[in-house]
Specification:
The chain contains 9 helices and no strands. The protein is an all-alpha fold. Among the domains are: 11-52; 89-132; 135-163, no CATH class. α3 (29-53) runs antiparallel to α6 and α7 crosses α8. The longest helix has 41 residues, at 91-131. 2% of the residues are buried. It holds the Pfam family Mt_ATP-synt_D.
Protein backbone atom coordinates (compact mmCIF):
# COMPACT_ATOMS: atom_id res chain seq x y z
CA UNK A 1 0.00 0.00 0.00
CA UNK A 2 2.90 2.35 0.69
CA UNK A 3 4.14 2.08 -2.89
CA UNK A 4 0.79 3.13 -4.36
CA UNK A 5 0.59 6.21 -2.09
CA UNK A 6 4.00 7.55 -3.12
CA UNK A 7 3.10 8.37 -6.76
CA UNK A 8 -0.07 10.08 -5.60
CA UNK A 9 1.81 12.04 -2.97
CA UNK A 10 4.51 13.13 -5.41
CA UNK A 11 1.86 14.10 -7.98
CA UNK A 12 -0.02 16.15 -5.38
CA UNK A 13 3.16 18.02 -4.50
CA UNK A 14 3.76 18.96 -8.15
CA UNK A 15 0.40 20.70 -8.62
CA UNK A 16 0.82 24.37 -9.51
CA UNK A 17 -2.50 25.77 -8.25
CA UNK A 18 -1.96 29.29 -9.60
CA UNK A 19 -1.10 28.00 -13.07
CA UNK A 20 -4.26 25.87 -13.15
CA UNK A 21 -6.51 28.90 -12.60
CA UNK A 22 -4.64 31.20 -14.99
CA UNK A 23 -3.94 28.77 -17.82
CA UNK A 24 -7.54 27.53 -17.94
CA UNK A 25 -8.92 31.05 -17.54
CA UNK A 26 -11.08 30.00 -14.58
CA UNK A 27 -13.24 32.63 -12.89
CA UNK A 28 -15.85 33.06 -10.18
CA UNK A 29 -17.27 30.01 -8.47
CA UNK A 30 -14.84 27.65 -10.16
CA UNK A 31 -11.81 29.50 -8.77
CA UNK A 32 -13.43 29.72 -5.33
CA UNK A 33 -14.09 25.97 -5.34
CA UNK A 34 -10.54 25.28 -6.48
CA UNK A 35 -9.11 27.50 -3.73
CA UNK A 36 -11.27 25.78 -1.11
CA UNK A 37 -10.07 22.39 -2.38
CA UNK A 38 -6.46 23.61 -2.25
CA UNK A 39 -6.91 24.81 1.34
CA UNK A 40 -8.39 21.46 2.39
CA UNK A 41 -5.51 19.69 0.63
CA UNK A 42 -2.90 21.80 2.45
CA UNK A 43 -4.66 21.34 5.82
CA UNK A 44 -4.75 17.56 5.41
CA UNK A 45 -1.13 17.47 4.24
CA UNK A 46 -0.10 19.53 7.29
CA UNK A 47 -2.02 17.23 9.67
CA UNK A 48 -0.46 14.13 8.09
CA UNK A 49 3.02 15.63 8.52
CA UNK A 50 2.34 16.43 12.18
CA UNK A 51 0.91 12.99 12.89
CA UNK A 52 3.75 11.21 11.13
CA UNK A 53 6.26 13.02 13.37
CA UNK A 54 4.55 12.00 16.62
CA UNK A 55 5.84 8.87 18.36
CA UNK A 56 3.86 5.74 17.51
CA UNK A 57 4.70 3.58 20.54
CA UNK A 58 3.82 4.09 24.19
CA UNK A 59 6.55 3.27 26.73
CA UNK A 60 4.53 1.57 29.46
CA UNK A 61 7.70 0.71 31.43
CA UNK A 62 8.33 4.44 31.80
CA UNK A 63 4.86 4.91 33.33
CA UNK A 64 5.33 1.86 35.59
CA UNK A 65 8.52 3.44 36.95
CA UNK A 66 6.77 6.79 37.60
CA UNK A 67 3.37 5.71 38.90
CA UNK A 68 2.76 3.83 42.14
CA UNK A 69 -0.52 2.25 40.96
CA UNK A 70 0.71 -0.49 38.62
CA UNK A 71 -2.84 -1.80 38.07
CA UNK A 72 -3.81 1.39 36.24
CA UNK A 73 -0.82 1.08 33.91
CA UNK A 74 -1.58 -2.62 33.31
CA UNK A 75 -5.24 -1.81 32.52
CA UNK A 76 -4.29 0.96 30.10
CA UNK A 77 -1.68 -1.27 28.42
CA UNK A 78 -4.26 -4.04 28.06
CA UNK A 79 -6.76 -1.59 26.49
CA UNK A 80 -4.01 -0.21 24.22
CA UNK A 81 -2.90 -3.60 22.95
CA UNK A 82 -6.46 -4.81 22.40
CA UNK A 83 -7.45 -1.68 20.48
CA UNK A 84 -8.07 -2.29 16.81
CA UNK A 85 -8.49 0.85 14.70
CA UNK A 86 -11.58 1.03 12.55
CA UNK A 87 -11.09 0.61 8.84
CA UNK A 88 -12.92 2.87 6.45
CA UNK A 89 -14.07 2.26 2.95
CA UNK A 90 -12.59 5.16 1.03
CA UNK A 91 -14.67 4.50 -2.09
CA UNK A 92 -17.39 6.88 -0.89
CA UNK A 93 -14.89 9.71 -0.35
CA UNK A 94 -13.24 8.98 -3.70
CA UNK A 95 -16.62 9.07 -5.44
CA UNK A 96 -17.34 12.41 -3.73
CA UNK A 97 -14.01 13.77 -4.95
CA UNK A 98 -14.70 12.50 -8.47
CA UNK A 99 -18.14 14.13 -8.39
CA UNK A 100 -16.52 17.38 -7.22
CA UNK A 101 -13.99 17.16 -10.04
CA UNK A 102 -16.73 16.48 -12.58
CA UNK A 103 -18.73 19.48 -11.30
CA UNK A 104 -15.61 21.66 -11.42
CA UNK A 105 -14.91 20.59 -15.01
CA UNK A 106 -18.55 21.23 -15.96
CA UNK A 107 -18.44 24.69 -14.36
CA UNK A 108 -15.14 25.44 -16.09
CA UNK A 109 -16.54 24.39 -19.47
CA UNK A 110 -19.67 26.50 -18.91
CA UNK A 111 -17.51 29.47 -17.94
CA UNK A 112 -15.32 28.93 -20.98
CA UNK A 113 -18.41 28.82 -23.22
CA UNK A 114 -19.77 32.08 -21.79
CA UNK A 115 -16.37 33.75 -22.11
CA UNK A 116 -16.01 32.55 -25.72
CA UNK A 117 -19.45 33.94 -26.63
CA UNK A 118 -18.65 37.25 -24.95
CA UNK A 119 -15.28 37.44 -26.72
CA UNK A 120 -16.96 36.84 -30.08
CA UNK A 121 -19.48 39.61 -29.36
CA UNK A 122 -16.71 41.97 -28.28
CA UNK A 123 -14.68 41.16 -31.40
CA UNK A 124 -17.74 41.83 -33.55
CA UNK A 125 -18.33 45.14 -31.74
CA UNK A 126 -14.68 46.11 -32.12
CA UNK A 127 -14.81 45.30 -35.84
CA UNK A 128 -17.95 47.45 -36.20
CA UNK A 129 -16.25 50.32 -34.37
CA UNK A 130 -13.13 50.05 -36.52
CA UNK A 131 -15.15 49.93 -39.76
CA UNK A 132 -17.68 52.59 -38.79
CA UNK A 133 -17.87 55.80 -40.77
CA UNK A 134 -17.75 59.15 -39.03
CA UNK A 135 -21.13 60.42 -37.81
CA UNK A 136 -21.09 63.29 -40.30
CA UNK A 137 -20.93 60.82 -43.22
CA UNK A 138 -23.97 58.76 -42.13
CA UNK A 139 -27.24 58.98 -44.04
CA UNK A 140 -30.80 58.32 -42.87
CA UNK A 141 -30.74 55.08 -44.89
CA UNK A 142 -27.57 53.94 -43.07
CA UNK A 143 -29.22 54.52 -39.70
CA UNK A 144 -32.43 52.77 -40.84
CA UNK A 145 -30.36 49.71 -41.92
CA UNK A 146 -28.52 49.67 -38.61
CA UNK A 147 -31.68 50.14 -36.50
CA UNK A 148 -34.79 49.01 -38.43
CA UNK A 149 -36.89 49.57 -35.31
CA UNK A 150 -36.56 53.33 -35.84
CA UNK A 151 -38.39 53.12 -39.20
CA UNK A 152 -41.10 50.95 -37.65
CA UNK A 153 -41.57 53.30 -34.70
CA UNK A 154 -41.66 56.38 -36.95
CA UNK A 155 -44.28 54.81 -39.26
CA UNK A 156 -46.35 53.88 -36.19
CA UNK A 157 -46.18 57.43 -34.80
CA UNK A 158 -47.10 59.02 -38.16
CA UNK A 159 -50.05 56.64 -38.58
CA UNK A 160 -51.33 57.82 -35.18
CA UNK A 161 -50.92 61.47 -36.12
CA UNK A 162 -47.94 62.14 -33.84
CA UNK A 163 -45.21 64.17 -35.49
CA UNK A 164 -42.91 64.61 -32.48
CA UNK A 165 -41.37 61.90 -30.30
CA UNK A 166 -42.56 61.81 -26.70
CA UNK A 167 -40.64 64.27 -24.52
CA UNK A 168 -39.18 66.21 -27.45
CA UNK A 169 -40.82 69.54 -26.58
CA UNK A 170 -39.84 69.23 -22.91
CA UNK A 171 -36.26 68.55 -23.83
CA UNK A 172 -35.75 70.90 -26.80
CA UNK A 173 -38.59 73.42 -26.43
CA UNK A 174 -41.25 74.65 -28.89
CA UNK A 175 -39.78 75.57 -32.27
CA UNK A 176 -42.94 76.80 -34.01
CA UNK A 177 -43.56 80.52 -34.24
CA UNK A 178 -47.17 81.70 -34.04
Amino acid sequence: MATSANPQRSAALKINWVQIATSLGLKGQTVASLQAFKKRNEDVRRKVAILSETPQEVDFNHYRAILKNQAVVDEIEKAYTSFKPATYDLNKQLKTIEAFEAEAVKNAEATKGRVDVELQELEKTLKNIEEARPFEDLTVDDIARARPDIDTRTADMVSKGRWMPAGYKEKFGELSVL
